[in-house]
Amino acid sequence: MKRSTVLTIAGSDPSGGAGIQADLKTMTAFGCYGMSAITAITVQNTTGVTRVETLDPGLVSAQLDAVFTDIRPDAVKIGMVSCKETIRVIAEKLTEYHAQNIVMDPVMVSTSGHRLMEPDAMDTLIRVLLPLADLSTPNLPEGEALSGLTIASGTDMPCAARKIYDATGHPVLLKGGHLDGCADDLLWNGREEIWLRGRQIKTKNSHGTGCTLSSAIASGLALGLSLESAVREAKTYLSGALAAGLELGNGRGPVDHCFRIEWGPRHDTE
Ligand SMILES: Nc1ncnc2c1ncn2[C@@H]1O[C@H](COP(=O)(O)OP(=O)(O)O)[C@@H](O)[C@H]1O
Ligand SMILES: Cc1ncc(COP(=O)(O)O)c(N)n1
């Protein structure tokens, strides 16, 4: 039997809501075999991030060798990459192994406000790693940092998405989850603006939404979907995971990756 394979290159969140942990849950929910190369260990939970330890870039490189020389990923998701050196080794290895279907979530700052990428790494990210990605998925603050434009409303999004496309040469999904009143995302592929309209679900529990979306897109690509279909399927998955209404932790809780699972013990009757 064969399974589509997806690799995440990202940071670890011990509370399981974001990073590697959210990525692997998402890949499993899509019926894919998930693998992970860890770039950093964070200390965080639903109330915030208290510590970040970047792993030695040589260790990231060795993890990538271990994966690519044994189980070839059908798609790769890249999340938190905290420093220039890590960005460089990832780019080298993805080029060396001719990695395909690369989705880059340019994680810069956690929603709780903790910096997850060193400020001087941005230039290397734009020049070295983003051009290798088949899709980047910035949120609005990341979109502003990458484009140098202010994005105050949905009408500012097309201009910013075009500018990021021009700088990277690849499609951009500019996510509108930080807008007031809607959750509309814009996919710009260099030819057409494709709006993915979303109803904003009233919840504080949106920890790891960006990680989940990018992993779901990578999983869709690994399964052979077109870019637009993969993005649409991912958005539908994330809406379901948000709407499920999981309540965990004392802060901004995670989304529910079990919402499609119809068997097993139920916990909602206790
Ligand atoms: N409250 C919400 N209801 C519905 N969709 C949301 C909500 N918050 C975020 N999203 C969606 O989740 C995805 C990630 O959103 P966003 O918050 O913009 O990025 P990030 O998690 O990287 O900060 C996007 O598709 C966005 O539209
Ligand atoms: C390891 C890791 N990667 C990414 C995020 C961003 O997620 P969020 O925007 O929900 O804080 C995070 N908090 N931790």
Report on this model:
This protein is an alpha/beta fold and 270 residues long. The chain has a single domain, classed as UDP-N-acetylmuramoyl-L-alanine:D-glutamate ligase. The chain is built from eight helices and nine strands. The chain has helices at residues 19-29, 57-68, 84-96, 122-129, 140-147, 157-168, 209-222, 227-243, and strands spanning 5-12, 33-45, 48-54, 75-78, 102-104, 135-136, 172-174, 185-188, 193-196. A hairpin with a 2-residue loop joins strand 2 (33-45) and strand 3 (48-54). The longest helix has 17 residues, at 227-243. It is globular and about 50 Å long. It starts with a strand and ends in a 27-residue tail after the last helix. Bound molecules: adenosine-5'-diphosphate (ADP) and (4-amino-2-methylpyrimidin-5-yl)methyl dihydrogen phosphate (MP5). Adenosine-5'-diphosphate binds at residues 111, 139, 175-178, 183, 185, 198, 200-201, 203, 206, 209-210, 213, 235, 238-239, 242.
Structural key phrases:
270 residues, UDP-N-acetylmuramoyl-L-alanine:D-glutamate ligase, alpha/beta, binds (4-amino-2-methylpyrimidin-5-yl)methyl dihydrogen phosphate, 3-stranded antiparallel β-sheet, 8 helices
Biggest β-sheet: count, sense, barrel? Answer: 6 strands, mixed
* Total beta strands: 9
CATH superfamily: Ribokinase
Small molecules bound in the structure, each named once: adenosine-5'-diphosphate, (4-amino-2-methylpyrimidin-5-yl)methyl dihydrogen phosphate
Poorly predicted runs: none
Helix and strand run = EHEEHEHEHEHHEEEHH
Name the beta content range: 15-25%
Main CATH class = Alpha Beta
So what's the oligomer here? Answer: single chain
Structural class: alpha/beta
